[in-house]
């Protein structure tokens, strides 16, 4: 049995029924005037297609900007990057904004400084 995407929606009308899978989950919530989709796990050859389909459904059902929160995405391969491009094109065709929200890069305080042993 193949892996699939799990989509947990908290909208009054979920954009897509939940699917069970272990590689990627997509949480969906309305915050202010935007739909925020939180991607957790891996966006790769196994999950790119269902993820694009889920985002396309959100764009079709909700006439508002979409934010992709990628802070919890552990892995993204070339197919995953292609999926992000496809999602952007789908949003553009729908006349909606789609933006990525990424984690902040680690600061100097996040790196432990170790003196070499002599």
Characterise this structure.
- The chain has a single domain, classed as Transcription Regulator spoIIAA (2-Layer Sandwich), CATH 3.30.750.
- It is globular.
- Helices cover about 25% and strands about 30% of the residues.
- It has two helices and five strands; from the N terminus they run βββαβαβ.
- A hairpin with a 2-residue loop joins β2 and β3.
- The N and C termini lie far apart (about 55 Å).
- With about 120 residues, it is α/β, with parallel strands linked by helices.
- A five-stranded mixed β-sheet has the order 1-2-3-4-5, with helices on one face.
Provide the low-confidence segments as ranges. Answer: 1-6, 9-20
| Number of DSSP helical runs | 2
How many E strands? Answer: 5
- Average of per-residue pLDDT values: 79
CATH superfamily, by name, is STAS domain
- Please state the overall shape, judged from the principal axes of the Cα atoms: globular
The chain-level structural class is alpha/beta
Task: Please tell me the total number of domains.
Answer: 1
The CATH first-level class comes to Alpha Beta
Reported for the largest beta sheet, the result is: 5 strands, mixed
Oligomeric form: single chain
State the end-to-end distance.
54 Å
Corresponding CATH architecture:
2-Layer Sandwich
Share of residues in helices: 25-40%
Strand content: 25-35%
Could you give the order of the helices and strands? EEEHEHE
Strand order of the largest sheet: 1-2-3-4-5
Per the CATH scheme, the topology name is Transcription Regulator spoIIAA
Work out the radius of gyration. Answer: 16 Å
